[in-house]
Amino acid sequence: MQENFSLKPYNTFGVDAKARYFAEVHSTEELIEALNYSKTSTLPLLFLGGGSNMLLTKDFDGLAIQLNLKGIHEEFVSDNEVLVTAKAGENWHEFVMFCLNKNYGGLENLSLIPGNVGTSPMQNIGAYGTEIKDTFVSCTVLNLENLQLETFNLEQCRFGYRDSVFKQEGKGKYVILEVTFKLTRKDHKIKTEYGAITSELENLGIKNPTIQDISKAVINIRKSKLPDPKEIGNAGSFFKNPTILLTQFEELQQKFENIPGYTNGDFVKVPAGWLIEQCGWKGKQIENVASHKLQALVIINATGKATGQEIYDFSTKIIDSVKEKFGIELEREVNII
Ligand SMILES: Cc1cc2nc3c(=O)[nH]c(=O)nc-3n(C[C@H](O)[C@H](O)[C@H](O)COP(=O)(O)OP(=O)(O)OC[C@H]3O[C@@H](n4cnc5c(N)ncnc54)[C@H](O)[C@@H]3O)c2cc1C
């Protein structure tokens, strides 16, 4: 247990906020020990994975717990299927690479997403036409009220777009300890239709892609588009893509004929990056904070000196201008602490 501890290396925005107390745990027993300590002193809790989806707006007056539980377990369930369970502290991308090295298919489109396995169910991480809900079986959690272990299956997690029960009514009630996925061993489903995967495969001269090729293409595309948090502080997409009513979308089309949208029944998902760009934010910097020059949806700690509050205020300005121009209220994807 350490006191007055800087969380700068523990959040990818590189914000220098301090935690009153900090502990790193390597097992469920150590976690329970730390929780018992916080219960006796009634400290608020903050769980840390890779810190790639949080914005620390101020010092945290409580106990921050870095979840460093490690381990991967495999179980063949049929000729073509394997259950792979990884502990919360496993790095997500390294876990995906582990699966690809064993030729287990299903997670390849999710290559290079920062963060840890334990956080992946929080917002049902997704990219390039895949979400974890497509291969998720269950997760084991610790109930913070009674310190009992519970299992959540696919249905109980109520996954949605960048959403789950853990961001809604289960918020702050559970710590995810491990996650199990069902992956394929030979009849892999290759998904190339989303984003620039097809053209990147062409660039690589690949005609019949394997799951490993898909991963390679996704990695190349992501590296060319997104800032590396090791070089420039960011948390990926800061906002969710808003879903609006088809009627509202049609009204907007009268005024903005190029407005992009993906229709699903009576609703349309509009790319937040486009809306932000139209408001003139792409590449724009205010003091220490900017919108990324290649992707307006990504807010960056441009000078490395930004405070969490500055980044938050910058995001509020973006929300206000999108609301004013399009009448659409953007929702933050990043967890505000
Ligand atoms: C460059 C970049 C690109 C990104 N691209 C994508 C993308 O393509 N798709 C996507 O979905 N996301 C993307 N993200 C967002 C981020 O990588 C994911 O949301 C990731 O799952 C966050 O994991 P983490 O361990 O870093 O979470 P953290 O930031 O550590 O935690 C996020 C929240 O979950 C809580 N938490 C952490 N661990 C646990 C646990 N075990 N149990 C309960 N609560 C917990 C934290 O307290 C916090 O509120 C990107 C981020 C960056 C920086």
UniProtKB/TrEMBL annotation:
One of its GO terms (biological process) is cell division. Pathway: Cell wall biogenesis; peptidoglycan biosynthesis. Its cofactor is FAD. Keywords: Cell cycle, Cell division, Cell shape, Cell wall biogenesis/degradation, Cytoplasm, FAD, Flavoprotein, NADP, Oxidoreductase, Peptidoglycan synthesis. It catalyses: UDP-N-acetyl-alpha-D-muramate + NADP(+) = UDP-N-acetyl-3-O-(1-carboxyvinyl)-alpha-D-glucosamine + NADPH + H(+). Belongs to the MurB family. Gene3D superfamilies: 3.30.465.10, UDP-N-acetylenolpyruvoylglucosamine reductase, C-terminal domain, Uridine Diphospho-n-acetylenolpyruvylglucosamine Reductase, domain 2. GO terms for cellular component: cytosol. This is UDP-N-acetylenolpyruvoylglucosamine reductase. The active site is at 162, 237 (proton donor), 333.
